[in-house]
Amino acid sequence: MTKLKAISDLHLASPANREALHELPAFKEDWLIVAGDVAERFDHIRLAFGTLAGKFAKVFWVPGNHDLWSIPEPGGEPALTGETRYRALVDCARDYGIVTPEDPFETWDGPGGPHVIAPLFLLYDYSFRPDHVERHEVVDWAREQGAVCADELYLNPTPWNSRDDWCSNRCDEAEQRLGDIPDGAATILVNHYPLRSDLIHIPRAPRFTPWCGTRRTEDWHRRFNAKVVVSGHLHTRRTDWRDGSRFEEVSLGYPRQWDQSKGMASYLRDILPE
Fold first, then answer.
1. pLDDT tens for each residue of 7-47
2. How many angstroms separate the CA atoms of 14 and 59, rounded?
3. 148 touches 142 (CB < 8 A)
4. Where exactly are the structural domains of the chain?
5. Which of 33, 75, 87, 248 has the smallest set of CB atoms within 10 Å of its CB?
């Protein structure tokens, strides 16, 4: 039976994760959603795109924060930043026939369908924080309990003034496109970050939440008739339900966070059919 599968947070800077990708068997009839954090370097990203495009009938990708980090490439090539880097990632994905947030939405007509698959790039705006913490205080507030995000150094928002502004622009664009989906059509929303703060369960770093999404998307599963919402980022694989929508966190994670003896295929989440 043809299936729609999902995974995220491949983190191919790790040799163990690259080896697992190499050993992943082919699923020639299935579609795959990759919900961000493939790698920091373009050579590893190309490795992932080429490998996965050869193993699945169709692949969807959305960027994670690690994909967007402004890190120099091997050989001393200067790092691409901000929107320029994102567009280069999109071009790279398209070279392998992979569907990106900049492409028309496609419809899954296989078992459990039809569902419109909507890859999204929304970023975060630090609004996943307590109401008493002001925006200008949030990084220091998080640091009080040891929560620090490398995005503050490596995720350059150029040409936007801030990651907040970039997030706002991306949400504006996404709302318009999602609003154009025909009324009543079932959707699968795909974003690297969780759409709701109540889906975040990271007890070892409870103040990491400001880098995990935006309050603006809290009701998008209802507004846009999402039967399933796919995300990663948290490295806490789980399934949750809100208002009849299924939320799937599909991270693989760093080698210490998964069992290499099981292989990467064991961590592919079946999205449809249920």
1. 999 999 999 999 999 999 999 999 999 999 999 999 999 99
2. 22
3. yes
4. 4-272
5. 75
